[in-house]
TrEMBL record:
<keyword id="KW-0238">DNA-binding</keyword>
<dbReference type="InterPro" id="IPR050109">
    <property type="entry name" value="HTH-type_TetR-like_transc_reg"/>
</dbReference>
<dbReference type="GO" id="GO:0045892">
    <property type="term" value="P:negative regulation of DNA-templated transcription"/>
</dbReference>
<dbReference type="Pfam" id="PF00440">
    <property type="entry name" value="TetR_N"/>
</dbReference>
<dbReference type="InterPro" id="IPR009057">
    <property type="entry name" value="Homeodomain-like_sf"/>
</dbReference>
<keyword id="KW-0804">Transcription</keyword>
<feature type="DNA-binding region" description="H-T-H motif">
    <location>
        <begin position="59"/>
        <end position="78"/>
    </location>
</feature>
<dbReference type="Pfam" id="PF02909">
    <property type="entry name" value="TetR_C_1"/>
</dbReference>
<dbReference type="GO" id="GO:0003700">
    <property type="term" value="F:DNA-binding transcription factor activity"/>
</dbReference>
<dbReference type="InterPro" id="IPR001647">
    <property type="entry name" value="HTH_TetR"/>
</dbReference>
<dbReference type="InterPro" id="IPR004111">
    <property type="entry name" value="Repressor_TetR_C"/>
</dbReference>
<keyword id="KW-0805">Transcription regulation</keyword>
<dbReference type="InterPro" id="IPR036271">
    <property type="entry name" value="Tet_transcr_reg_TetR-rel_C_sf"/>
</dbReference>
<dbReference type="GO" id="GO:0000976">
    <property type="term" value="F:transcription cis-regulatory region binding"/>
</dbReference>
<feature type="domain" description="HTH tetR-type">
    <location>
        <begin position="36"/>
        <end position="96"/>
    </location>
</feature>
<protein>
    <submittedName>
        <fullName>TetR/AcrR family transcriptional regulator</fullName>
    </submittedName>
</protein>
């Protein structure tokens, strides 16, 4: 039997409507004033508006106007703004998954984090949608499946693997949103030097007093705080440095598990 043959016919009713739509479990309307409209057109148009103008610009009226339909006709396909946001998130995560290769687990984790971060830069609105629960749409779950694939040979149980995916995803989310904010600031007329504080180095050095900021003072004076002195920054990119320390911790964790042996339970 195929999965379709064994699937509960009511499974769609057990999911939020937006998730059911993402899985193709809700049939499109069979009749209407203009049947050439499709769910994918609606979602693509919403994403295009959000990419250019932000999430607040997305509305059923705005999408309908862009497509040449009435807002009421859109509700035949998507019943609420929440459903639309879920579909937009799912579509934004439809990115190529690297083929399985011989790359080691650290390199795969780097790619995983960088790919996730890029979603926040390509679609700045993505991080503006609140997290309301675990991922349940197909493209989000493909990402998780990818993460589980490159951890399959590590000495970890299922709980540990999922916890590491959450750790990597959280780091990618925070770092991706920081880079997104930098992109936004530069588009609004700022410069990388202003964003990093480099333009304010001299002012900070005069304002900073060792009695008030005893631990931050030497950092600012050395130029590290605003990256004023590249010679005192041997680690390179801050985000890459942080990621490598996370990977070091992961490696230390499962190396310790190997040393415990199969008789020890964790």
């Amino acid at each position: 039997m195929s999965n379709d043959e064994t699937m509960d016919p009511e499974i769609g009713s057990k999911l939020p409507r937006g998730a059911a739509l993402s899985w193709g479990l809700v049939k499109p309307p069979q009749r209407g004033p203009k049947r050439e409209m499709s769910l994918s057109q609606i979602v693509e148009t919403a994403i295009d508006i959000a990419d250019k103008e932000g999430l607040s610009a997305v509305s059923m009226n705005r999408i309908a106007s862009a497509l040449g339909f009435t807002a009421m006709s859109l509700y035949r396909y998507i019943s609420s703004k929440d459903d639309l946001l879920l579909l937009m998130q799912n579509a934004a995560c439809d990115i190529p998954i690297p083929p399985e290769d011989s790359a080691d687990w650290r390199e795969n984790m780097r790619i995983y984090v960088k790919s996730t971060m890029q979603v926040f830069r390509d679609h700045p609105w993505f991080g503006d949608i609140p997290i309301t629960g675990i991922p349940i749409t197909p493209n989000n779950l493909r990402f998780i499946d990818w993460g589980l694939r490159f951890m399959k040979d590590l000495p970890l149980n299922d709980y540990e693997r999922m916890s590491l995916i959450l750790l990597l995803s959280n780091y990618a989310r925070s770092s991706g949103m920081m880079q997104r904010d930098m992109d936004r600031a530069i588009q609004a007329g700022s410069t990388p030097e202003q964003f990093s504080g480099l333009d304010y180095t001299e002012a900070l050095k005069q304002l900073m007093k060792p009695d008030r900021f005893p631990f931050l003072y030497p950092v600012v004076m050395s130029g590290v705080y605003t990256e004023d002195n590249e010679e005192v920054n041997p680690i390179g990119n801050d985000i890459d440095f942080g990621l490598e320390r996370i990977l070091d911790g992961i490696e230390q964790y499962f190396q310790a598990k190997k040393q415990q042996g199969p008789s020890d339970k964790s």
